[in-house]
User: Which sequence fits this backbone?
């Protein structure tokens, strides 16, 4: 049983017979008769009581008509939703924690203002986790730091971040040899900021004696203030940290100081919700 069978069945009921149903559907009468017979055989019930050329709905026909109306209405609703370019439904978006905390409040607030009927769901994670979730269809788009390794993604530059190394305010400059803290404070593997900090140590011939993985920027910065080690993060994160006076911010050389955050989505599969967010991010300035 498919939708075309139900559409033919409903037309026969509404038009009061095979002849008028065939006219309304622009089909020959024999085709309508055959399709109705095939539907009855498939369901193994009689949908009509036949009195000569007259058809009356049988009890099973009454039951099926109710379902046919609902199923056909639902199919029309689904078609309209797919073809409609207005964002609707649930928008599952992924983002790195720093982006979610500092950069997203304004654009998501604007998104909610423009599309109040869309339900936003946000998942935080590192680029590897979010890329895998995007490929699995668990989210529709994600905001992650470059580079994007998977060629199956399209992308838009969303933000450009200045990154800095932070230490306790009591720590001297880290630009000299041997002056880097012996402990790195980082997120889990896959975090682009962790990779940058590890590269910074390696480039200067330094080896961290300890690596402490933490789950949030506020925990990381608290440990930095306590003198436990160094962290690398977007400078914008510091604007939302109330105890930033306890931190010493070390600017990086210009060629190492910037990191772009990209909005990514499955190639050639930007939904109306993703396109709406793209427009907002493009207008952010």
Assistant:
């Amino acid at each position: 049983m498919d939708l075309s069978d139900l559409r033919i069945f409903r037309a026969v009921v509404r038009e009061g017979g095979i002849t008028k149903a065939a006219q309304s559907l622009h089909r020959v009468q024999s085709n309508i008769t055959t399709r109705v017979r095939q539907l009855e055989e498939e369901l193994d019930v009689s949908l009509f009581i036949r009195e000569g050329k007259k058809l009356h709905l049988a009890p099973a026909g009454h039951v099926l008509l109710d379902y046919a109306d609902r199923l056909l209405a639902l199919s029309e609703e689904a078609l309209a939703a797919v073809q409609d370019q207005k964002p609707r439904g649930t928008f599952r978006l992924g983002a790195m924690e720093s982006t979610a905390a500092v950069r997203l409040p304004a654009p998501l607030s604007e998104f909610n203002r423009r599309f109040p009927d869309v339900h936003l769901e946000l998942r935080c994670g590192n680029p590897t986790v979010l890329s895998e979730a995007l490929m699995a269809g668990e989210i529709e788009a994600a905001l992650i730091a470059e580079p994007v390794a998977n060629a199956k993604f399209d992308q838009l530059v969303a933000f450009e971040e200045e990154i800095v190394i932070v230490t306790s305010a009591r720590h001297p400059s880290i630009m000299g040899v041997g002056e880097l803290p012996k402990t790195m404070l980082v997120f889990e593997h896959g975090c682009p900021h962790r990779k940058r900090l590890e590269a910074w140590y390696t480039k200067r011939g330094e080896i961290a004696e300890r690596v402490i993985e933490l789950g949030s920027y506020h925990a990381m910065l608290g440990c930095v203030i306590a003198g436990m080690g160094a962290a690398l993060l977007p400078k914008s994160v510091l604007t939302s940290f109330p105890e930033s006076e306890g931190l010493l911010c070390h600017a990086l050389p210009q060629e190492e100081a910037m990191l772009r955050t990209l909005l990514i989505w499955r190639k050639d599969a930007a939904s109306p919700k993703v396109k709406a967010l793209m427009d907002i991010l493009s207008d952010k300035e």
About this structure: The mean pLDDT is 88.
